[in-house]
Specification:
201 residues; mainly beta; 2 domains; 14 strands; calcium; Cadherin-like_dom; calcium ion binding; Cadherin_CS
């Protein structure tokens, strides 16, 4: 006759057939809550007197891709000077996925708000960098949408993801000198003209 040693941590999770000794899953498993179980199995005969033995079974719960990456926070903001060098770091975003292995590995991409590709993001680290020369007079503010997805599979259906927004303000640099309109100017004046009280020629 087979039996499981009483353990409140596994009660209702596994069951053991008393006759066939078949171990079955009886409740819900969640690797993120508990990844390993050690069960003590007892076997007892019906002799007189009955004799018994016991052994331990180690069970590891395999991961299922049942959690999405999560950005925290969902909104980021930063500022960068328009003369920032290409490759300059702007900020770093971060998302976490409690799954393990490829199911929990997060990769990043900019998916909206930067049609000119003025910024880039590291797929592995989430660091956003300047990718092209910026110009405050051309564009003074960007709102980028960044996507974090896991690496669970190649199909869109199997990949889980989350998005966040980044607001980037471009700081103006005094890089444009004043210019005269319609330059050069030419004026003619008679040598015997009395100066005007207004000072205009």
């Amino acid at each position: 006759e087979y039996s499981l040693s009483p353990d409140s941590a596994v009660t209702g999770v596994f069951s053991l057939g008393p006759v066939d000794g078949l171990l079955r899953v009886a409740g819900r498993l969640d690797r993120e809550t508990r990844a390993n179980y050690t069960l003590e199995i007892r076997a007892k005969d019906r002799g007189e007197p009955p004799r018994a033995t016991k052994t331990n079974i180690f069970i590891r719960v395999l991961d299922e891709n049942d959690n999405s990456p999560v950005f925290d926070p969902k909104q980021y903001s930063a500022s960068v000077a328009e003369n920032a060098s290409i490759g300059a770091s702007v900020l770093q975003v971060s998302a976490t996925d409690v799954d393990e292995g490829l199911n929990g590995r997060v990769r990043y991409a900019i998916v909206a708000g930067d049609d000119n590709r003025d910024f880039s993001i590291s797929e592995d680290t989430g660091v956003v960098r300047v990718a092209k020369n910026l110009n405050f007079e051309r564009k003074s503010r960007y709102v980028l949408t960044v996507r974090a997805e896991d690496c669970a599979g190649n199909s869109e259906e199997s990949v889980r993801h989350d998005t966040a927004n980044i607001s980037i303000s471009i700081i103006d640099i005094n890089d444009n000198p004043p210019t005269f309109l319609d330059s050069p100017y030419v004026a003619y004046i008679m040598e015997n003209v009395v100066p005007s009280p207004s000072g205009y020629v």
